[in-house]
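Notebook entry, structure prediction.
Reason for the run: the old model in the group folder had no record of what sequence produced it. Starting over properly, with the input documented here first.
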Amino acid sequence: MSAHESRDAAVSAPDGGEPARVSDSSTQMTFAAQELRLMSALVVILGLGLFLALPFVLSIGSVVFLPLVTALILTIVLSPLADKLASWGLPNVLASFLSLLLLCAIMMLALGLILQPAVALFDQLPQVVDQVSKRFSELRANFHWIASANEQIAQITGHTGREVVLASPSVFEQLAFATPSVVLETLLTFLMTFFMVEARVRLRRHLMLDRSDFGSSIKAARVIREVQDRVAAYILTVTFINAGVGVIVALGAWALGVDAPVMWGGLAALLNFLPYIGPLAMTAVLALYGVGTAETALLGIIPAAAYLGLHTVESNVVTPSILGARFTMNPVVILIALSYFSWIWGVFGALLSVPILLTLTAFFDHVGRPNLIGFIFGEPLFIGNPQTTEPAEET
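New structure, fully documented this time:
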């Protein structure tokens, strides 16, 4: 066989089909796709393991991690205010301290509006509990046939319904044990917040000037700016909306003759930071207090019904129209984040859940979101390009 015939046999298939090089290239592409999918599967498994193991680590180390995460969120919120104060000619340290001092003053004012009337109403708690018990006893008397049916079922099945009472620490004992930890975490939070806010200028300069690649510096600066602007705008907007809800609730409580209307307004504004769960808790508290203080159960339900109507208008009309689509998040994802961080850090985790979720959303908008659903059906784990602000060059 001549050299020319040997070259043709190597290039062409025996039956005159596709060249061997095309077949080798297709085999390499298939192997690369399988390798990529294997690596993506490993990434998903590692991410799932981290998601399941992270709560135990964060919960055990809550004294360190909770102040750190809270300080990061507060730094994102206070940085624009510190920048504004610094633009007026104030030194960076003084601007950072004043922004933190303003936050502390607002928090102390809000707690004072809620706690001081609550202490005054604490003496009425036994009477309210007795009245609520009477209302429920009357309601249970109207459905006595249900209790009779339960007793008959218990006699048939042989269950006696014994109660087991476990001794638990009193409220004052729990407060005594929790106070040192709360004070320590609060001090750590404010200290870390101050130093993070004060170091924001050096951080920006480090990201911009200490990178070998100018493109990566620009991208890092954009990510930080986008996260800061989105989270700060969301928290400030929601704060103003919740303050408006608190004012309306206080005026409504005053018009209905409810005691301590300012306390109810402040409590409504504070609980409105917890999506779904906060308004439900506020409705339940208003209903119980109204039933325990009003002459009839029907009159006692009126404050709770009025608040529920206000919340329906606020959550479905006012808030979406002000925040817009930029801050729209899946309710299922919000509830998952709420339960996830509540499981780890309790009430503080619930308050931090939405800011943390918004921060992660803004971050993944730039670096790319994992395509978990599509990955199950054979698609790549990461598809599309991360969000950019520069238009693509025309070809």
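Summary: Residues 5-13, 163-168, 170-176, 385-395 have pLDDT under 50 and may be disordered.
The old model has been moved to the deprecated folder.
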